Queue: 3 jobs
Job 1
Amino acid sequence: MRIAIVTDAWEPQVNGVVRTLQSVRRVLEGQGHKVTVISPDLFYSVPCPTYPEIRLAMVRSRTIGDLLDEFSPHAVHLATEGPVCVAARRWCLRHDFPFTTAYHTQFPDYVEARSGVPAEWVWRYIRWFHAPAQSILASTASIRQALVDHGLPQVRHWGRGVDLANFHPGVARHPAMAELPGPVQLYVGRVAVEKNLEAFLASEHPGTKVVVGDGPARAALTAKYPDAKFMGPMFGEELAQAYRAADVFVFPSKTDTFGLVMIEALACGTPVAAYPVTGPVDILTPETGAMADDLDVAITDALTRDRADCAAYGRSFTWEASAAQFLAALVPIIEEARAA
């Protein structure tokens, strides 16, 4: 099967969208499917205002169409709501080629957090973009309900997975974290305002706060919270070692749709503390984490969880299952295209 994935988020970006697409692509190609990725690095692009790490591609639908014609896909999936996918959407509609989309990011909330533009205004764009899709893939029940509530009923489940070869409780503890005063409280992700990271750094629970990741807010937060340990980006085994060395993983975001880092931490045996919002409420169980409106309360509670229970639950999330869900959503698209 030939599958075209069109996305505005791709390498060298490091985020949940990119990691999800990379992981699912790897599984699908291992099963013999042919997957092409049409991404911003193929075109002229400009830095996104306030977020220069993200590149906005300047591309016409005809250019996207030429790439799709050359690949001759059985199915087209639009992963994001940016200019590359808008161009692909336009081509698909002009040629009556059905497509699926995905809702990876709480884009309306992100825009509101970064610019002050009301989220409901952005939802108008979200509805316009996704309305023609055959299916909209979303990772949690909360997000699927949010899409339905905003007039987008064609939702399907697409879960996430963990690279269990890297993330498991048998990995060694990160040497730079092994001797830190405990409890060691870890955050992993982008260091940006929409991640609500300052709520974690300002929390009063004793111990050491560790931040793994990078982003536009890093310099300011490093200066403001000198007692926190900012360790920069980590990947693969080194990241697993950081999860393993932490006593609790803290997920302060209130705008994520899932939170891939939570299940990676759990797979390493580390319990999770979070707010009771979309993402954590869909993923965490009473045995594997704690949620509270007061982050200090959640941290204190999460520290009582059994690490073996966390690791066992984390192992239940696999990329093979995620790829199967993604592929199943494409089947009716393929059948309809063949009939046409």
Job 2
Amino acid sequence: MIEKCGIFLFPLTPTGRRLIPFIFLSFLGFNLHGEETFRFAEYKFSSALTLPKTSTGKEDSLAGSTGLRLSFNDADFRAFTTLPKTSFSQISTANGIHEKLSLFDEARFGAGIFLFQKDFPLNLKVGHNTFSKSISRLRNPSPSVTANPLTKSFAFSIGASPALPTLNSSRQPLSCAFSLSPAEKPFKFHFCLEGFFNEEKESAVCFSAKFPFSKAVFVQSAFCAARLYIENNSSILEKNNAAFNPDFFYSALYEFCFHSPLLKINFYSGIQENPYDVNPFWFKVDGRTAFKSILLNFSYFALPTTKDSPKAAPMITGSSSVCRTVEQASINPQLLFFMGESSLRLGFSALENWKVTATSPAVQLNTAKFRVASEYKNGNFSSRLDWTRANLLIKGNPPASSAIPEEYQSLSVSGSLATQKANFSLSGSYTNYPPKTEKSSIKEVLSMDFKLALPQCSLTGNCGLKLTYKAGSRQSGEFEAGVSYFLSRKYLRSSLKAELILAF
């Protein structure tokens, strides 16, 4: 794939035409104050030209995104559009500007207004907004299986967290969101109220409060409720006699944390209305304790209502997907050593997972994942070594070859060096996939990446190589190279990116 610069135009959709007068009047209103409320204008551009492997028979294609952001002290306006991966023949046969613009996805708009920021901050955001944190857990509480053995942060992120669209964000339903967070001075605690309503008639509201006992000790709690539209997107449910009709369903989430220097606990619990006789309940506990150079992280997730739900559908989540993980536990001890200006961090993580297969009949499989890593830092130099063994089948009989966990082990090495003029980073990894069955072959993947950043020139370059082997023979190869440029002035910012990905 080759990515090069070009010029894309915003398609003036009906939504875009309606927003133009609104943006213009906003400009006029801010300028009438006679104050310097304008912060900066930012233009972003990215495009990609794909040159596929000749033997695949695929056509060359073009893809890209572009957008503009106008930032004020009390407002933020954004507009982006994307050309999805489109073959050259489609582009060349499109006659006239209207046909060419029809190749673009609908534009993504967003407008944010920030009121009473000093005493009673109120943020209003209208557009194709995205939501994360508590809303993400409401939509899909399935726990992650990443299990980083050198995890450093232990955050408690709550709320709807409405965000205006970005260059790389996917187009979301048009929504109106608000966030109200009074200043702490009039109150002994800090609280926040957030919510949204979108064009698909989904809605959610989140309330959170933080009670500080000291600078290092506090408790925080949050409650969220939502009305989400859930569809039947799984053919496996029908095969297991668990099909249902799409409809609106309610969900609720309670979150609590206690943070102190010696012990940190994050607790999450939720209930999701489902189309069956039982409304599944789930909970998750994350913990961390530290003593001198020893750090211990632990986590546990469970769906106690699994036995009462259909075997193939322990829980239908607010994102219309099936939560197949019914129980998961992990532990992560770490050791940190200081040697003058140098430091060495060692970590080990073990994760056990019980998961329902997407087969007919559905069965539960118990798998494990282990990771060991070390990280060395000395001034501006750092290096890391990481070994992983994953998807080890501990218990259960897969009903089909497709349900057999894809076991693998990998070894990766990375290093970085920062100087006054340039920052370098280099990484490489090797992954081995043993044969799943007697008829399958061993699979091996080799990858290497290099990155060079020149802060004084606002330039960043990167290149990478990825090779895939099966039974000792190379099956595919991919070379990637790219460069990005970032311009920052008092009232103007710009980000341009070019990339080459070539298959061989």
Job 3
Amino acid sequence: MPHETTAPAQNPVTAADVERAVHLCADLLRSAPADAPWQSPAGGLSWDCRETVEHLADDLFAYAAQLGLRRGPSDREVPFRYASARPGGPANTVFADPEAGAEGLAQVVESCGALLVAMVRTTPPDVRGHHVFGASDAEGFAAMGIVETLVHTHDVAQGLGLAWEPPGELCARVLGRLFPDVPGVPDGGDPWHVLLWATGRGELPGLPRRTAWRWYGEPRA
């Protein structure tokens, strides 16, 4: 098992981290060529690349919304109406106008990401929001938004044939915040590869590939 370090868990996840992840994602979307195959599968997902970007934007929006309730957590998410554009597609509240192209997708991600950034910056630390994996605070939702952004950008990059590797320190912070069950990053190792393994998207030496996974968003002790 890789040698565990405690440094990632000591570094808080911030609104600036969310903003950085979202901007990097939007930059990648805008870098796609004009003939990019947006209807191709996104990595190993059953969704296509366009649907995956919409799902990511919807996640960012939903996490911001969960922090906006005066009374929470409840036993369910804020009751927006969710729908799928096709059978088997992601159930979203947020969709992008298909006529707006890749730039429109980037703008929808940036806009929803900005909502989460603002909520993380302004939500008091004692506020909790509902999540299926447990009630969480603003820092937890920030970390969730970053993980969604990093791994779904990875999925889309695979589908479009683009290169994508996010900053290691960003990956290390969200690993420390959300994945206490995951082996620590080995000395000199790559936190991005560990995050891919933690979310069922990669391999780590000596460990089986994950077929099921979750994170732990409960506030730090």
